[in-house]
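quick one, 256 residues, struct below
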Amino acid sequence: MRDIKIIIVVIAIVLCSCVNNSKKDAQNRLVVFAGAGLTDALTEICDSFFITNGVEVKLNLASSGTLARQIEQGGEPDLYISASKRWADYIDSLGYVVDQQKTMVAGNKLSLIQPINSKTSVDIDSAIIWSDILADDYFSIGDPSHVPAGKYAVAALKHYGWYTAIKPKMLPAKDVRSALMVVELGEVPYGIVYKTDALKSSKVKIVADFADGSHPAIQNIASVISDKSNAQLLYKYLQSPLAKSIWMKYGFSVPE
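---
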């Protein structure tokens, strides 16, 4: 009987130790939901954050709208970084943002792109007859129903008077990286993506950047969703001088 009691005590101690270690591991591991267009810069920032603070960050990358719906349906990130103020405000309106910790961490531009080996070209400041240029081809953008880059693209198309001609030819992608890939593969002659994504690709070239006033300002907004102290630490790190240098390295603009 005495031996059985000792065994029970040992098991209890082991279980308590496992629970405590599990809680500790949870504190030292963060989950970030972020727009797909932030992949490269955010990966480097989170790697730097791990080296500095010893906190591992797992990234869930998709369109900002898809991620917002995941949060609404029970997803539990520690931070949410949206490429759209609209989706950031939506999550805030549902009460997920902790202590009003929500701010823009990086800005971007929008670019018209084509495959690197394309022999054709257009001048966005001249009259363009897209029905003739596209003929039987399509035009790649992120799906404007949930991809911020797609919404920005539609606004720019309307600003330049191209939307009516291009709308029947639009090939909506699940996120901005997918929209880029379609152009990289030469499956379509033109597309609209974030400038940062175009700059990183060796398979496309930028035809032109769209004027800032042709679409809503592109703001990547970070929001704290959990009450972990490390979540707030990462939130501040995203705005640090080192993080800003990484954002700019990948072509993003940063607030002063």
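The two ends are 70 Å apart (CA to CA).
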